[in-house]
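Q: Could you fold this chain for me?
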Amino acid sequence: MELAKGADAYRISNPPLLLAAALTVSLDIVKSCGGMHRLRENPLALPNNQYQLVTPSNPSERGAQLTLSFTFANVEKVYENLLQLGAICDYRKPSFLRISPIPLYNSFEDVYLFVKCLRQTFNNTTN
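A: Sure. Below is the predicted structure, expressed as C-alpha cells.
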C-alpha cells in the first residue's frame, strides 16, 4: 500500500487495509471449498410434513438461513428444548424458527445432529 503524501494519506478512498485483508482470506477459504455453488449444496433436510418452509424453497433464491413455520406445536417450547439440547437457532413470534446452516463452518454431521435434536424436540412437545 502506498500512502499519499501529507494529510492526504489519512483520507479514506479505498477499503481499509485490514478489512480488505480479512476479505481476501475469506474469499480464499470460499475458493478452497470449491466456490459458492459448492457451499450451497449443503441443504437442511427435515421431514417436510412437520413444518412449512417460509423462505424460498429454491436454494438459488435464498441464502443459508431458513425460516420454518410450525403450526402444530408451541414453537417457543420447541426453541427452548433445542437450546437445552445444544442446538443454536432463532425464535421469532408468532411461530417461526430460523435456522442457519453455514457451509463454511457447519458440517453435514452438524446438520444431521440438529435434525436429530429437532425430531427429539417434536417427540417431546407433541406427545
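A (continued): The longest strand covers residues 66-69.
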